[in-house]
Amino acid sequence: MQDIVTDSLRDLAQQLDAFARERDWQTFHSPKNLASALIVEAGELLEPFQWLTEKQSRELSPERRDAVASEIADVLLYLIQLSSALGVDPVAAAQAKLRLNAERYPVDKARGNARKHDEL
């Protein structure tokens, strides 16, 4: 499964690169600009959830779910572009972070609580 995800992300990164090249947008896609755009899109991802209860946030209407899906796509696209601009393999980085988190949050100490690793 990991190879499929990696190949899919690689394909998506290539599609994004071609999309930007066709429009001559590479000059605008500095790491700083991409990180800024990513944060803006992450904020937009939060907007459909604003003022919802926990329960409501788990039971989105089809229209609201579609809006959230669109914002998730925007976040993912900018994250992949930022990864490409910096030469970072996002899957490898995520796997390394997951290994680190497994050390920081051992099951016997972290199960069932939301405390930060330095408070366990």
Largest sheet: none
The percent range for helix content is over 70%
CATH architecture: Orthogonal Bundle
The amount of beta strand, in percent, is: under 5%
Which fold name corresponds to the CATH topology? Helix Hairpins
List SSEs in N-to-C order: HHHHHH
| pLDDT averaged over residues | 92
Q: Treating each run of at least 4 consecutive H or I residues as one helix, how many helices? A: 6
Q: What's the number of domains?
A: 1
Overall 3D form: globular
Radius of gyration: 18 Å
CATH class: Mainly Alpha
Fold blueprint:
Blueprint: H1 2-22, H2 31-46, H3 54-58, H4 62-86, H5 90-104, H6 107-110
Helix pairs in contact: 1-4, 2-4
InterPro entries: dCTP_Pyrophosphatase (IPR052555), DCTPP (IPR025984)
GO molecular function, one term: nucleoside triphosphate diphosphatase activity
Pfam family, one: MazG-like
Can you describe this structure?
By secondary structure, the chain is an all-alpha fold. The chain has a single domain, classed as MazG-like (Helix Hairpins), CATH 1.10.287. Helices cover 72% and strands 0% of the residues. The protein contains six helices and no strands. Helix 1 packs across helix 4 and helix 2 runs antiparallel to helix 4. The protein is globular. The two termini are 33 Å apart. The model has no long low-confidence stretch (mean pLDDT 92).
How do you describe this structure in short?
It holds the Pfam family MazG-like. The protein has a single domain (2-88), classed as Helix Hairpins. The protein is 72% helix and 0% strand.
